[in-house]
């Protein structure tokens, strides 16, 4: 790997570099939750509407209507945060966009088209609820689902390119022979996009289910709350084991394409065989300490043999090694994912035995926390992906420090943007709570049917 050298005339100060990275992290971390809901909620909403149309069940119809209205609010707020992110790409990282914009601009352009399609059909879907025949209205929501998934695919493919840059040649510091399709369809695109799209449905299902779990805990055990929980939790339950398989696929991709990143994730400092799998632990003085070590575990996971050689951090120069802090975020992601899988298994076994929810209140308490756990898994997964790529913003070609805007004032920008996100958070929560309380009186009051 070799860096093409700084593109900008002067380097940013260390403080401004940290401010730029923190601002991008806050913006991305905030937006990604809404982006996931924008992918998963339309599918769940259309499913509820379809069931209401087929069965005539008013509880399904009420679910669909309420979810659609909440979806409209979240889409509007997500459009704001997405616009902020698009500006930040150029304002914070002109060193990357100035040099490589022509290479990676295609997926951003297509994502913009997908966003407008999603916005147009979402507007039609919301406005025409009582103005179109039921079947036509249901069909009008399908482009919202397709466009949402497409948006996720194209944006994540751009991020995948940052991990596996392709589709260009670099001669004397100048980009030439640009192939934007090769850039977009780089080797990291399949594992990253599959992992992200499944995460979107997983987060949407668990977040929505957690709302109804709280209602069930508070004694609202009518059909409306029961269906609201079961529909959303079941969707997440179907996706969760698939997501764990996709996570293994992504990890094996790192073994082949980014072994130094895997070394940081697993806290492997020295290249060798018979490498243990360390669960937990903290990097201290060049070692991963205080964790649970499973002898030969990592070598067995990677190559199915204890003799499998694992590349360590010592294979790269000290200034090109990712920080081992990603080991902690990776463990949080995996731990959250498997905890959710156990919760899914709990419901699955109970439903198989007596066709009903678990009567233990601890299940509902855990389900009420499932949305937060899914968000933790999502956020820590993205931290692992982004921080694990450091010190590169474009793997092997451009360092993050060379891409940041050298103009002063990035620390002030961080404060302003942080304040904007605080206001957006408070406003969104207040609006959603007001919507929920203003319609509670219309919720069905039927008792739960025996399973």
TrEMBL record:
The keyword Cytoplasm does not apply. GO terms for cellular component: cytochrome complex; plasma membrane. The chain crosses the membrane at residues 30-50, 71-92, 104-126, 138-162, 194-215, 227-246, 332-351, 363-383, 410-432. It comes from the Bacteria. Coiled coil: none annotated. GO terms for molecular function: electron transfer activity; heme binding; metal ion binding; oxidoreductase activity, acting on diphenols and related substances as donors, oxygen as acceptor. It is a multi-pass membrane protein. It is found in: Cell membrane. GO terms for biological process: aerobic electron transport chain. Keywords: Cell membrane, Electron transport, Heme, Iron, Membrane, Metal-binding, Transmembrane, Transmembrane helix, Transport. It holds the Pfam family Cyt_bd_oxida_I. Belongs to the cytochrome ubiquinol oxidase subunit 1 family. This is Cytochrome ubiquinol oxidase subunit I.
């Amino acid at each position: 790997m070799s860096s093409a050298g700084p593109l900008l005339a002067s380097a940013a100060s260390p403080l401004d570099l940290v401010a730029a990275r923190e601002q991008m992290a806050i913006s991305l971390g905030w937006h990604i939750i809404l982006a996931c809901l924008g992918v998963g909620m339309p599918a769940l909403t259309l499913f509820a509407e379809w069931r209401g149309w087929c069965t005539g069940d008013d509880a399904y119809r009420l679910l669909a209507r309420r979810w659609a209205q909440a979806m409209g609010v979240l889409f509007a707020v997500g459009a704001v945060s997405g616009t902020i992110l698009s500006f930040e790409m150029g304002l914070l990282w002109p060193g990357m966009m100035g040099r490589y914009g022509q290479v990676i601009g295609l997926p951003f352009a297509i994502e913009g088209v997908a966003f407008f399609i999603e916005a147009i059909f979402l507007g039609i879907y919301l406005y025409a609820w009582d103005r179109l025949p039921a079947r036509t209205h249901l069909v009008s929501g399908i482009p919202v689902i397709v466009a949402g998934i497409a948006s996720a695919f194209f944006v994540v493919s751009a991020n995948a390119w940052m991990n596996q840059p392709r589709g260009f040649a670099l001669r004397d510091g100048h980009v030439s022979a640009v192939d934007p399709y090769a850039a977009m369809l780089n080797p990291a695109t399949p594992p990253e996009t599959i992992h992200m799209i499944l995460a979107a449905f997983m987060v949407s299902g668990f977040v929505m289910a957690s709302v109804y779990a709280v209602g069930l805990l508070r004694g609202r055990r009518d059909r409306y709350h029961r269906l609201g929980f079961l529909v959303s939790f079941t969707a997440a339950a179907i996706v969760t084991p698939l997501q764990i398989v996709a996570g293994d696929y992504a990890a094996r991709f790192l073994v082949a394409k980014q072994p130094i990143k895997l070394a940081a994730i697993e806290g492997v400092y020295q290249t060798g065989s018979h490498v243990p799998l360390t669960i937990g632990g903290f990097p201290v003085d060049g070692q991963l300490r205080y964790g649970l070590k499973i002898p030969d575990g990592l070598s067995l996971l990677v190559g199915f043999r204890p003799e499998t050689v694992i590349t360590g951090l010592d294979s790269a120069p000290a200034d090109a090694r990712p920080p081992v802090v990603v080991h902690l975020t990776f463990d949080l992601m995996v731990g959250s994912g498997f905890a959710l899988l156990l919760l899914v298994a709990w419901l699955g076994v109970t439903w198989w035995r007596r066709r009903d929810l678990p009567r233990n209140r601890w299940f509902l308490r855990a389900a009420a926390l499932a949305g937060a756990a899914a968000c933790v898994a999502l956020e820590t997964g993205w931290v692992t992906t982004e921080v694990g790529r450091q010190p590169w913003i474009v793997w092997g070609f451009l360092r993050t420090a060379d891409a940041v805007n050298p103009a002063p004032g990035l620390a002030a920008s961080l404060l302003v943007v942080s304040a904007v996100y605080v206001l957006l958070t408070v406003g969104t929560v207040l609006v959603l709570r007001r919507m929920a309380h203003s319609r509670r009186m219309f919720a069905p009051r039927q008792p739960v049917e025996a399973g």
